[in-house]
Amino acid sequence: MVANLLRLKLLLLRNSLKRSTAQLVGVILGGLYGLGILSLLVVGLVLLGSADVEFIRTVLVIGGSAAVLGWLVIPIAATGIDMTLDPARFVTFAIPMRQLLAGLVLGGLVGIPGVVTLIASLAQVLTWIRYPAAALTALVCGLVAVLLCVVASRLVTTAVSSMTGSRRFKDVNGIIAFIPLIFLGPTIGGVTAGFQNSPGFASSLADVLAWTPLGALWAAPADVAAGEAGLAVARFLIGVATLALFLVLWSRSLSHALVTPPYNAVTKRAGGNLGFLGRFPATPAGAVTARALTYWFRDPRYSASLVIIPFVAVLLFFSGGASGGAFAFLGPITAFLMAWSISADISYDNTAFSLHVSTGVSGRDDRSGRAAALLVFALPITLVFTLVPLVVAGRIGDAPAMLGLSLGLLLTGAGLSSVVSARYTYNVPLPGESAFKTPPGTNFTMFAVQFIGWLVMLLLALPEIVLAIAYLVTGNMLFGWLALLVGVALGAILLVVGIRMGGRWYDRRAPELLLAVSANR
Amino acid sequence: MPLPSDENNPEARAGSAALSIRGLAKRFGEKIAVNGVTLEVPQGSFYGLVGPNGAGKTTTLSMATGLLRPDFGQALVHGVDVWARPLEAKKLMGILPDGVRLFDRLTGEQLVTYAGLLRGMDRETVAERTGDLLRAFDLTNDAGTLVVDYSAGMTKKIALASALIHAPKLLVLDEPFESVDPVSAANIRDILANYVQSGGSVIVSSHVMDLVQRMCDHVAVIAAGTVLAAGTVDEVRGDATLEDRFVELVGGRNTSDGLSWLRTS
């Protein structure tokens, strides 16, 4: 049975890769990248062995604790990140609990995170090679720690799986889960700063972690190396006890989950509220705008990017300070990102796009409707995000140049996205899925389109970029006003051209687009 | 209920084909999904398209409605070539595709309204017809619920409502009764029967032979991408029931004892 579950997981992995070559290329590239990181990690761990015991201990305890924490937290943040062995799918099979547990643990190890963690924990044995007793302890503790990682993540997955049945939970979670991720960078930055400012910080952090379930198992080999066998045993027991506790909790919540299918409570609501559809012009383009705008607010895949926008501002503010640095370019940066965000619009529609095909919406109506929905909120945000940093920094004189740059990027980008989304589709999270979930095997085409698209966008906006730079260098107001003029005029022209070109493309290829998005389901 | 208005269209002659499928063929990779299907759906007929799973029903209907580009062949709706003049042809058709998503983050009412507005209809007409359709499909109480929270049957009904909003002259319905409860199915049958009586034409695909025999006046049996028989229901079934005739045409019945261990005694 255990072997069956394992084989199932491998089969699912293989079959998901067989569906498209582009996906396979993506996986291979991703795999090579992961392999590079992994070899760096292994080499680093081996080299670490020549350092003194105290230093090794600090690094291993902090790194190991981070790994356990990651396994624990990531499933909460990304519901459905790996639900291939979702307990709910085993409800109808009478699998003995013990075997199901074992199978799910091993299944959890199959996949890139599992393999990386396992190899890293083995490499950690090599770190201790100068102390044979410690190396042996590291081997045992490392394996227990890997088990702890998998069991912890399974426990969390199972515990939330009853909640994830509700659409509302999924929606809300899909949006707020982004927030800690955004602050991951600054947090790491803060911790790094802590390390640099006080040399003792790291080792005292490690001291604390070594007594928690997160770090205990990683600290035990160091105790052995330092000759403190008693401490090592105590730490090992902490780790094993945690593992045992998690196993019990997991098996309880699993047996609970197996008999309580997810239930989605829905309240009936009578009609009468057309929302945006009642407020925009009653034309095909107006309807597309209203529908797209509804999705920006109601579909977590879209609203996640809306929620991020204010955080981008906060992030840039703290990273570079109010006066200079990245915060000054908040407007252009958000404009750039927002404009590109509709480049996968049809991929996000998935097969719901068939309504546009069957009703015979013209390409121009479809394109302009979607672009208009973006501009409805992107335009005010861009204006505010461009002007506020200038006011804060007391450099309101820069306004024309910066506005030219921001608006130019926004309009140009919206035009370019209108062309791109009529031509290219790629695998995106399906409707109803978490915005986090990348379909198995990140698509290579997507990276290529993204990268080339960004280059083209910068190229198209080059005139206003050059003028804005000229203004910033010379301080000559003429360049600033010219940047504004060129940005708005050229951007508007490119937007119209993009909508027309994308529209023509759409008219010719709408059935092909529908076929392409049908492949991803 | 919106009904097709024949008197406004002098071109519509009794007896001419509402939908004429001529030699449609489609290949996916190595697999030939549809191998030269030719069908005539007479105006004012209630046409059933039956076939086993994977026979090519959905592929044929997708190609006939402009959703999937055929490799060969032609489809004409009231004489308008679907692939040469798609916009005109799509105005004449109401389409219920099978196995596609809906814009399910809209409420039921918003979705039907959206379909109407996409067709370029004016706001008042859309609002009036949306109300009528929701009532006819017994969805008034759920009009403000998001479609994503609908049951499978309700989802089917709201999709059907979206296909009817512009009062098409031809309805192409792929598995319209799947997971619809019996009462709603009876209501839908009445609506469709009225529609056909007023001069509209319907083509439905279905697995349920009984339903097709009772409801349709014409039928085509399709298997492995080829039409095996087509004509009026009485022509096709002869003396037998449609189901027996279907099984006879398509084959594949297991006559052996089968699962001998599947017994309780």
From TrEMBL, chain A:
The keyword Protein transport does not apply. Keywords: Membrane, Transmembrane, Transmembrane helix. The chain crosses the membrane at residues 21-49, 55-79, 100-123, 129-151, 172-195, 232-251, 306-330, 372-396, 402-426, 447-472, 478-499. This is Transporter.
From TrEMBL, chain B:
Its main location: membrane. It is found in: Cell membrane. GO terms for cellular component: plasma membrane. PROSITE patterns: ABC_TRANSPORTER_2 (PS50893). It comes from the Bacteria. One of its GO terms (biological process) is response to antibiotic. SMART domains: AAA. It is a peripheral membrane protein. Transmembrane segments: none annotated. Pfam families: ABC_tran (PF00005). Keywords: Antibiotic resistance, ATP-binding, Nucleotide-binding, Transport. Residues 19-249 form the ABC transporter domain. InterPro entries: AAA+_ATPase, ABC_transporter-like_ATP-bd, ABC_transporter_ATP-binding, P-loop_NTPase. GO terms for molecular function: ATP binding; ATP hydrolysis activity. This is ABC transporter ATP-binding protein. It comes from Arthrobacter cheniae.
